[in-house]
Amino acid sequence: xxxxxNTVRGxxxxxxxxxVLTGAGVSAESGVPTFRGPEGLWKMRDPMTLATPEAFAADxxxxxxxxxxxxxxxxxxxxxxxxxxxxxxxxxxxxxxxVTQNVDGLxxxxxxxxxxxxxxxxWVVRCxxxxxxxxxxxxxxxxPPRCTACGGLLRPGVxxxxxxxxxxxxxxxxxxxxxxxxxxxxxxxxxxxxxSGYAGVAKRRGARVIEVNPDETLVSAICDxxxxxxxxxxxxxxxxxxKSA
Length: 245
Ligand code: APR
Hints:
elongated; alpha/beta
């Protein structure tokens, strides 16, 4: 590890092509539960009974009760200084992409525009029958909700275990990883593929890789710098935006 905060700030200042990969940890300070942390969602429930196409086919009502609860929880959360710092740095770097595994929409709410949501969005619903897709932020009175066009079952617009990533965001991410000078990996345990392999892709290509995470992860060993702190503190410091009061 060669980079202290001032060194990495220097790298950021001269960087022309920056990719940032985020995970649930970036939204933790906003009150959104992570998946594998102490009170993580997957500590409470078995993901195979809630976040797979098979679970949805077996019991769409139970799946929707859980996703409606998550939407209600996220609806009450606001972006934190980590989200704000990423939205702000976007304008300063000519070639920038924020690749997020988060489905909570907080990056966009913070003002980020160059965003690839590789796991979809919890605010989008898609018909399992006709494929019609739309944004829907309100709660559903009846669960599971049905498509107004064909009567088919609506499903959350997120990527479940065993499913392919959406082609647009996925190819945008791979293209950026193949050219970025620097990759910042923030708030992810790096255990879920293919995002868990993104740091390796960038590193093999010669990009600098920086990690922001209170804990060690599976990609820590290949990083040029690691910051063992909360993204709401570290990201503003890295980008020279002192944390707002
Ligand atoms: N700032 C930065 N990192 C944090 C913070 C914080 N304030 N709080 C926790 N973390 C770190 C944890 O140490 C952990 O390494 O965030 C990481 C969260 O890891 P996970 O809960 O595994 O979430 P994530 O990596 O995003 O999960 C990947 O798994 O369940 C699927 O589709 C789901 O997108 C998700 C994917």
